[in-house]
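User: My instructor asked us to take a sequence, write out its structure as tokens, and then describe one feature of it. I'm not sure where to start. Here is the sequence I was given:
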Amino acid sequence: MTLLGFGRGFSSHPTPWERPAAKANKAAIFNSLKAKEKRLRRWFPLMQRMDKLRTILLVDDDPNDVELALQALAEHRLANEIAVVNDGEQALDFLYRWGPFEGSDRTPPAVVLLDLKMPKVDGLTVLRTIKSDQALKTVPVVMLTSSREERDLIASYELGVNAYVVKPVNFSQFIEAIKQLGFFWAVLNECPGKSGTAAQARV
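Assistant: Let's start with the prediction itself. The structure tokens for your sequence are:
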């Protein structure tokens, strides 16, 4: 006598999933699902990180260099927003959300690409301010300058610069240098204090 029912315990005949061919197919499906789950688990932290991409702050008073830098970063298809300011005073306004930047997102930038010789407030002053501020000192700062003077290099490292890059004269070399800088500091580099905010008061 054969008992038919909805559950496996009510039938003496093998269910479709219990037949040899079906078992093999079931195993293949499960293995495929496990592989997909493994890929999702691997990519999930990256997707989370992409949701929290921070701004790249470019500080340079030379419009030609700014245009080339933006072109280079665009060619590398970085998803980060690029904020451009043209002197050190504007850079501090951006970092501390003063003046025109008041009320904007206070998350520190992923990296500051900082020119050295600028009007109003020079690059060394901006660098000194960043590295002496508890909320900003972990933000990577790359001095991107045409100056090859030893004293500028030494002063920058004494103040805590993360990298000192002399702008290449050659167009293609300049483009490549910016690409590599943007990709390394904005994508590959990990730094603490991602959720920190800049201090309110001027320093």
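For the description part of your assignment, you could build on this observation: The CA atoms of residues 85 and 91 lie 6 Å apart. Try explaining in your own words what that tells you about the chain.
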